[in-house]
Amino acid sequence: MNDDRVAQIQAVLDSLLPGLLGVRLVSADAERVVAELDVKPQLCTTGGVLHGGAYMAFADTLGAVGTILNLPAGSRTTPTDSSTKFMAAAKVDTTVTGESVALHRGRTTMVWQTSIRRADGKLCAFVTQTQLVIPA
Questions:
Q1: Is the pTM of this model over 0.90?
Q2: Residue 43 CB: number of other CB atoms within 10 A?
Q3: Residue 1: pLDDT band with limits 50, 70, 90
Q4: pLDDT at residue 117 above 80?
Q5: Which of 42, 38, 36, 40 has its CA nearest to residue 61?
Q6: Using only C-alpha atoms, what is the Rg of the chain?
Q7: Residue 118: how many other CB atoms lie within 10 Å
Q8: What pLDDT, in 10s, does the model give residues 23-37?
Q9: What are the beta bridge partners of residue 34?
Q10: Tell me, what DSSP letter sits at residue 18?
Q11: DSSP 3-state assignment of 7?
Q12: Bigger pLDDT: 1 or 120?
């Protein structure tokens, strides 16, 4: 995807919850979305590690972006389900990277699988979500 389209999507995200979280798109196309998130103290739980809800919101954002890139004109999307598996902690003042890949891009639903990793490559969370395609 061209840099202009990524910048347009980033501008929309910046005005919503992903902007509050600090989600930064790195790349995005119809089959794969990559973004980064700094682990700030405000996103942490006790012990200075990224809150589970932050992982989930980060992954939900990436799956939604991927779906939006595949929607027919005038359609919209919403998640119908999401499953998160937590593997390892991400400490405050580090950065995690999320990579969401399309498992299914159908007419009525799309399924995305997101891996969230620390800078050392360790898998922190694994999220599978289904997005509903709502026709115009």
A1: yes
A2: 21
A3: low
A4: yes
A5: 36
A6: 14
A7: 18
A8: 999 999 999 999 999
A9: 27, 99
A10: H
A11: helix
A12: 120
Rounded to whole angstroms, how far apart are CA atoms 70 and 132?
Answer: 12
Q: Which two tokens stand for residue 68?
A: 């939006």
Amino acid at the residue 53: G
Q: Which residues of 47-81 are buried (b: 16+ CB within 10 A; e: fewer)?
A: eebbeeebbbbbbbbbbbbbbbbbbeeeeebeeee
- Token pair for 65: 């972006």
pLDDT digits (tens, 9 = 90+) for 76-94: 999 999 999 999 999 999 9
Cα angle 98-100-106, degrees, rounded to a multiple of 5: 165
Strands of the sheet containing 76-86, edge to edge, are: 24-28, 32-38, 95-105, 109-117, 123-134, 76-86
- Both structure tokens of 21: 């979280």
Give CA–CA dist 35/126, Å, rounded. Answer: 15
pLDDT at 28: 96
Residue 49 clears pLDDT 70, i.e. is over it: yes
Quote the CA–CA distance of 70 and 73 in Å, as a whole number.
9
